[in-house]
């Protein structure tokens, strides 16, 4: 059997629908009129399989708390989110060609800001990284430190364990870990961590795939937060690009959208000719 696809816009006079709602609502041989959205139907009259296909586009939105593109050539890193959270260049971090335009080169430097705006219950942090050398200590992507030693940290260890750690202020440290065995130098990788204090769940994503998810004990409120990008016990010997901070829990699909920058694939109604 040979299946030939040909687009036929609005063949049933219906608006396209979201592909996730696709289901079969008619039996083979029924008339090709008055179909519900999401129909797959074999019409024996013309020997065609009618399919209603549409992936709705999803708007790409900007992060609401911080978006650091690192497109500068020197100095501090501007915030493109519109929130005004410019990062201060610490220890003479430099810039180099990156994933998109320029990127921050983080050995020996890093970037930081101190702002109560980062004292949030739920958040997602994303960035692109490319290692120049493999880590030889706990090298951080995001470090949030508050009063009384309260902290949230997202970093990689010398043994290539990708880690989220929360603790301080009298709370026991909690870990979410992923054995990043294929960590390599010279390769751009998209990393993300989502922290849901409301439900005490933290998740780690690599190239938009969920690789670790654990519950953890919440730490006390930060109050005043020092936010560091590119530093834990040591700066990461890597490039960082397109770092984003959201005050919401991003889903896997949203993280993938952030990573790819693509707003979805549009399809229309169509037919498949069935050729014996």
Which terms would index this structure?
single chain; 276 residues; mainly beta; Jelly Rolls; 8-stranded antiparallel β-sheet; 7-stranded antiparallel β-sheet; 1 helix; 19 strands; 3% helix
User: Which runs of at least 5 residues are low in confidence (pLDDT < 50)?
Assistant: 1-38, 264-276
Name of the CATH class of the largest domain: Mainly Beta
CATH architecture of the largest domain: Sandwich
The mean pLDDT is 75
Q: With helices defined by DSSP (H or I, 4 residues minimum), what is the helix count?
A: 1
How many domain modules? 2
Silhouette: globular
Major sheet size, sense and barrel closure: 8 strands, antiparallel
- Strand-pairing-aware structural class: mainly beta
Strand percent estimate: 35-45%
Rg, Cα atoms, Å? 24 Å
- Measured distance between first and last alpha carbons: 5 Å
Work out the number of β strands.
19
Any idea of the CATH topology of the largest domain?
Jelly Rolls
Order of helices and strands: EEEEEEEEEEEEEEEEEEHE
Helix content: under 10%
Explain briefly what this protein structure is:
The chain is mainly beta and 276 residues long. It is 3% helix and 41% strand.
Describe the fold and architecture.
Mean pLDDT is 75; it is low at 1-38 and 264-276. The relative contact order is 0.24. The N and C termini lie close together (5 Å). This protein folds into 2 domains: 1-57 and 267-276, no CATH class; 66-260, Jelly Rolls (Sandwich). A hairpin with a 2-residue loop joins strand 15 (201-206) and strand 16. The chain has 276 residues and is mainly β. It is built from 1 helix and 19 strands. Strands 4, 6, 7, 9, 14, 15, 16 and 18 form an 8-stranded antiparallel β-sheet that branches. The chain has a 7-stranded antiparallel β-sheet with strand order 5-8-17-10-11-12-13, with no helix packed on it. The longest helix is centred in the last third of the chain and has 9 residues, at 252-260.
